[in-house]
Give the backbone structure.
Amino acid sequence: MRDIFIFGSGGFAKEIAHLIKDINLSKERDENYNIAGFIDTAPQINTLTIGKNQFPIFDEKTFFETTGHDNASFTIGIGDPQIREKIFNLLESKFDFPNLVHPSVTGDFESIILGKGNIIAAGCCFTVDISIASSNVFNLNVTVGHDCIIKSNNVINPGANISGSVTINNSNLIGTGATILQGLSVGSHSIIGAGSVVTKDIASHVLAVGIPAKSIKELHHTKKD
């Protein structure tokens, strides 16, 4: 059993802990994980309680100055694409970021290219010939169609539907229940609102909402594409 640390200590981090528990209970998985603790920026408490279990919370500033985690794995329990991007880009070359895939996920994984550090929650459905880079979140019941290209650090919230041959670039937030229609592309560092239906390409650094989705605001991030 391999130790794993979770970045973040909020609600999504707790959901990742539950995902890991389900992975450990699955007889189909070869490797199990021991949740060794959570890592947060200036935490206000020292422990996180989940059900009957308590886990330590480590201060990010001092955690990597200590020893004993060189052979551990890490995952990012934070739902902000910009923060995920920062953490992953800083640490992915030094530490192990496994793909955490719920046992209920379906898809032709012989034809799916999967990077590292991806989180795929319960009920997700992938079809065939999909390319997924690294550090993405596919929350509950997301569907991804054939021949999609999904780059890194995207957060795709529950119930989103991505049709075939869609390209999603880096560090986007796709809202709950959003739909992206066949053959379209989404730039980088954009937000698609909950329940929106994307019928045209979405540029980088925009907020797009509605049916059909329209860009209503430019977003300014420090990273430029």
Remarks:
- Residues 2-78 form a domain with the Rossmann fold fold (CATH 3.40.50.20).
